[in-house]
């Protein structure tokens, strides 16, 4: 540990304290999750729903795509409604209509202001205090009628009622989404329960189980005092954190000692091992899945304007919105993960002294075909589930889990974890021998720790089941989506790049080690407990909001120095003549720093404070952050790793300037256009609608089908087309490089290592 003792102690302290917070308050998630009562019944003894019916409805919801068809508690797709907010508003308005007829004999809209205010007061009293007693909930006869009318609407919507055909088109739902009538009734029970939890106060609390989310003026679902308080605290902490980082950077940052690069690329001297030569097929898989993801994403986006058709062709019968959106997200995760896994497998022999451990190539080949099997199997399972061909009892295991980013069936999820764990074994076989050699091993130790974390933390997705309370499921889902993807992959990327640049002789090992350890602490201090910022309104309590708001603000702090990191990376290309051949991988790493600042930083903090997320959760403002951060950061990282590996496993290749300029600027420009022309304006308009009238309205058919929003969704095609050009260009560069195909009419020539 030696000279890095303080940095290691800092990193270990950060990890221990932050995971302690995540674990302690995770226990509170279990204890305080919204209960699923044994029964919901009327004073006359009529049973409306019971515990098993609600959970059966949760399974039915999973089978139609779950979060890929509308959202629950704000998490999911943006096209159809948030079913919680939509059910709640429909039930409330039905109650008011029934009450107006009972009390005054006329429609609610015909009542004067005083009469409406009186009924709204009764409405609020009944709904906000509809608490659990003896594990049962008593539903008034009037509310039971409102529930029945609302349930009838949903049962018709998820069937093929001709009267709701246009609504299904506007929601991008296929006809007869859920054919089984009993399962539609169960689905209604699940939607009702999520709305009950969002409208009923916790015992001894002034707020609902979802912290008064969604915004619903009819029952005074408005931001709590704690929401506003912790939002202000998060902003103050952000400013303080930035100030502290600037001061620390000014006083503690030291210039790296002068490094004289070698006259020849050090990595080009090392003879390629069989396992490294076998990585070409990984790169082909990366670009193949990327092309598939982007093209299927174009269909997904087009469904937002034509609902069930693609330029007049009715394809929703076979490939509905919920399916193509599932494939769009899952393929992104697959190709990005494949790029990262390939980077690790490329580094392993280098770490091992330029040679393969025994049977390493065989392991690399087995892992590749295992990845292909998981991708193909999970995609087929998704299709069978959403087509309602798969038997219901097999759906969760082989079909569709229903949870965004973890949509693949549990069996395929186990397969994916097994593959990642096998990758961990392959990595450790190469790394283990290096620890036996003399010299500074601190950077290698950090890289090893990140590899182990990636290999093991995906297993957190197994801590929930098909019928786990959705609040508890959300806790573990974000361990995968936030911790595994945004946390440990970030540390791995930092350590891997530092190791690569160090191996190239461009930066000194002490500087690389110091920067990597410091960056890991900065990323994780906010990143680990910052997981809770996804759970403000998912059935959790105020302390979860406090921890999430406080630490998620700190996530943004290290991103302000990424401009310096980008410059440092970019200037490396002038450190030696041979570095010019790595210009485009370096350009991708510069893009990572830019999108980390904008996508993860600016657009991330735009939605992170509780008061902001209260109004924008489930709106297109979230999509702005998701696209800019997922592709902008992790996508460009995976592309950079892919180009770097390609450069060394095909040493004769010279990147085509025409293809690479087209790819780089089209990808960045297309992403910018997609955001500023369509996603961000729609999100901001939805934000105003949500704040002024309620979330139900911001996601409603009336608002989303307005002429202006339809025009903005059509205009998104401009950015999409530019982006697709970039994807095709980068894909052809990789494909032609792997298979030694002529580029732009010229033979691939041998480059000199000068």
From TrEMBL:
<dbReference type="GO" id="GO:0016020">
    <property type="term" value="C:membrane"/>
</dbReference>
<feature type="transmembrane region" description="Helical">
    <location>
        <begin position="484"/>
        <end position="507"/>
    </location>
</feature>
<feature type="transmembrane region" description="Helical">
    <location>
        <begin position="282"/>
        <end position="303"/>
    </location>
</feature>
<dbReference type="InterPro" id="IPR054309">
    <property type="entry name" value="NorB_cytochrome_c-like"/>
</dbReference>
<protein>
    <submittedName>
        <fullName>Nitric oxide reductase large subunit</fullName>
        <ecNumber>1.7.2.5</ecNumber>
    </submittedName>
</protein>
<feature type="transmembrane region" description="Helical">
    <location>
        <begin position="7"/>
        <end position="26"/>
    </location>
</feature>
<dbReference type="GO" id="GO:0009060">
    <property type="term" value="P:aerobic respiration"/>
</dbReference>
<feature type="transmembrane region" description="Helical">
    <location>
        <begin position="544"/>
        <end position="563"/>
    </location>
</feature>
<dbReference type="Pfam" id="PF00115">
    <property type="entry name" value="COX1"/>
</dbReference>
<feature type="domain" description="Nitric oxide reductase subunit B cytochrome c-like">
    <location>
        <begin position="37"/>
        <end position="215"/>
    </location>
</feature>
<keyword id="KW-1133">Transmembrane helix</keyword>
<feature type="transmembrane region" description="Helical">
    <location>
        <begin position="228"/>
        <end position="249"/>
    </location>
</feature>
<feature type="transmembrane region" description="Helical">
    <location>
        <begin position="332"/>
        <end position="354"/>
    </location>
</feature>
<dbReference type="GO" id="GO:0020037">
    <property type="term" value="F:heme binding"/>
</dbReference>
<feature type="transmembrane region" description="Helical">
    <location>
        <begin position="443"/>
        <end position="464"/>
    </location>
</feature>
<feature type="transmembrane region" description="Helical">
    <location>
        <begin position="366"/>
        <end position="390"/>
    </location>
</feature>
<dbReference type="Pfam" id="PF22085">
    <property type="entry name" value="NorB_cytochrome_c-like"/>
</dbReference>
<dbReference type="InterPro" id="IPR000883">
    <property type="entry name" value="Cyt_C_Oxase_1"/>
</dbReference>
<feature type="transmembrane region" description="Helical">
    <location>
        <begin position="718"/>
        <end position="739"/>
    </location>
</feature>
<dbReference type="InterPro" id="IPR036927">
    <property type="entry name" value="Cyt_c_oxase-like_su1_sf"/>
</dbReference>
<feature type="transmembrane region" description="Helical">
    <location>
        <begin position="410"/>
        <end position="431"/>
    </location>
</feature>
<keyword id="KW-0560">Oxidoreductase</keyword>
<feature type="transmembrane region" description="Helical">
    <location>
        <begin position="670"/>
        <end position="698"/>
    </location>
</feature>
<feature type="transmembrane region" description="Helical">
    <location>
        <begin position="627"/>
        <end position="649"/>
    </location>
</feature>
<dbReference type="GO" id="GO:0004129">
    <property type="term" value="F:cytochrome-c oxidase activity"/>
</dbReference>
<feature type="transmembrane region" description="Helical">
    <location>
        <begin position="514"/>
        <end position="532"/>
    </location>
</feature>
<feature type="transmembrane region" description="Helical">
    <location>
        <begin position="584"/>
        <end position="607"/>
    </location>
</feature>
<dbReference type="GO" id="GO:0016966">
    <property type="term" value="F:nitric oxide reductase activity"/>
</dbReference>
<keyword id="KW-0472">Membrane</keyword>
<keyword id="KW-0812">Transmembrane</keyword>
């Amino acid at each position: 540990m030696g000279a890095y003792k303080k940095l290691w102690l800092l990193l270990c302290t950060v990890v221990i304290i932050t995971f302690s917070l995540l674990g302690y308050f995770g226990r509170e998630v279990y204890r305080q999750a919204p209960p699923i009562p044994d029964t919901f019944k009327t004073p006359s003894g009529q049973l409306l729903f019971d515990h098993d019916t609600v959970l059966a409805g949760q399974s039915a919801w999973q089978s139609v795509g779950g979060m890929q068809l509308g959202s629950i508690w704000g998490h999911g797709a943006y096209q159809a409604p948030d079913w919680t907010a939509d059910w709640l508003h429909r039930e409330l308005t039905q109650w008011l209509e029934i009450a107006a007829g009972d009390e005054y004999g006329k429609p609610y809209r015909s009542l004067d202001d005083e009469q409406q205010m009186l009924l709204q007061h009764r409405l609020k009293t009944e709904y906000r205090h509809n608490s659990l007693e003896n594990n049962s909930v008593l539903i008034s006869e009037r509310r039971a009628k409102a529930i029945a009318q609302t349930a009838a609407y949903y049962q018709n919507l998820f069937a093929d009622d001709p009267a709701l055909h246009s609504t299904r088109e506007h929601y991008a739902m296929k006809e007869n989404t859920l054919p089984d009538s009993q399962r539609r009734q169960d689905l209604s029970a699940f939607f009702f329960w999520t709305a009950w939890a969002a409208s009923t106060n916790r015992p001894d609390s002034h707020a609902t189980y979802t912290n008064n989310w969604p915004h619903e003026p009819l029952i005074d679902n408005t931001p709590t005092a704690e929401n506003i308080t912790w939002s202000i605290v998060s902003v103050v902490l952000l400013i303080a954190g930035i100030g502290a980082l600037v001061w620390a950077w000014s006083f503690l940052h030291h210039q790296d000692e002068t490094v004289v690069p070698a006259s020849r690329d050090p990595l080009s001297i090392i003879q390629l091992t069989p396992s490294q030569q076998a990585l070409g097929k990984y790169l082909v898989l990366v670009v193949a899945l990327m092309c598939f993801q982007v093209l299927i994403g174009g269909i997904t986006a087009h469904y937002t304007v034509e609902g069930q058709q693609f330029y007049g062709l009715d394809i929703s019968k076979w490939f509905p919105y919920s399916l193509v959106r599932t494939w769009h997200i899952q393929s992104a995760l697959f190709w990005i993960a494949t790029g990262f896994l390939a980077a690790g497998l490329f580094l392993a022999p280098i770490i091992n002294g330029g040679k393969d451990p025994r049977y390493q190539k065989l392991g690399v080949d087995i892992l590749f075909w295992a990845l292909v099997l998981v991708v193909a199997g999970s995609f087929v399972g998704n299709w069978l589930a959403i087509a309602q061909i798969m038997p219901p009892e097999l759906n969760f295991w082989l079909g569709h889990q229903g949870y965004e980013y973890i949509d693949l069936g549990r069996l395929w999820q186990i397969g994916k974890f097994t593959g990642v764990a096998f990758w961990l074994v392959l990595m450790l076989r190469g790394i283990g021998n290096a620890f036996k050699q003399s010299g500074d091993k601190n950077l290698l130790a950090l890289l090893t720790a990140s590899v182990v974390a990636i290999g093991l933390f995906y297993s957190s997705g197994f801590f929930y089941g098909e019928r786990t309370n959705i609040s508890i499921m959300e806790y573990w889902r974000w361990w995968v989506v936030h911790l595994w993807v945004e946390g440990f992959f970030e540390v791995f990327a930092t350590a891997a790049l530092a190791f690569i640049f160090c191996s190239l002789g461009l930066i000194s090992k002490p500087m690389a080690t110091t920067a990597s350890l410091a960056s890991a602490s900065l990323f994780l201090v906010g990143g680990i407990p910052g997981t809770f910022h996804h759970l403000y309104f998912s059935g959790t309590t105020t302390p979860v909001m406090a921890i999430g708001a406080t630490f998620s603000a700190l996530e943004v702090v290290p991103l302000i120095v990424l401009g310096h990191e980008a410059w440092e990376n970019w200037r490396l290309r002038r450190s030696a003549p041979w570095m010019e051949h790595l210009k485009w991988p370096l350009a991708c790493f510069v893009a990572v720093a830019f999108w980390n600042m904008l996508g993860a930083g600016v657009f991330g903090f735009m939605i992170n404070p509780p008061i902001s997320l209260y109004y924008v959760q489930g709106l297109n403002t979230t999509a702005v952050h998701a696209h800019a951060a997922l592709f902008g950061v992790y996508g460009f990282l995976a592309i950079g790793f892919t180009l770097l590996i390609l450069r060394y496993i095909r040493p004769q290749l010279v990147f085509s300037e025409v293809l690479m300029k087209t790819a780089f600027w089209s990808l960045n420009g297309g992403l910018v256009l997609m955001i500023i022309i369509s996603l961000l304006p729609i999100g901001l308009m939805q934000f105003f609608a949500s704040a002024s009238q309620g979330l139900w309205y911001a996601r409603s058919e009336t608002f989303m089908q307005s002429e202006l929003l339809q025009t903005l969704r059509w205009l998104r095609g401009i950015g999409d087309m530019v982006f697709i050009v970039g994807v095709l260009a980068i894909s052809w560069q990789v494909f032609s490089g792997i298979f030694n195909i002529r580029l732009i009419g010229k033979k691939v020539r041998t480059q000199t290592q000068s």
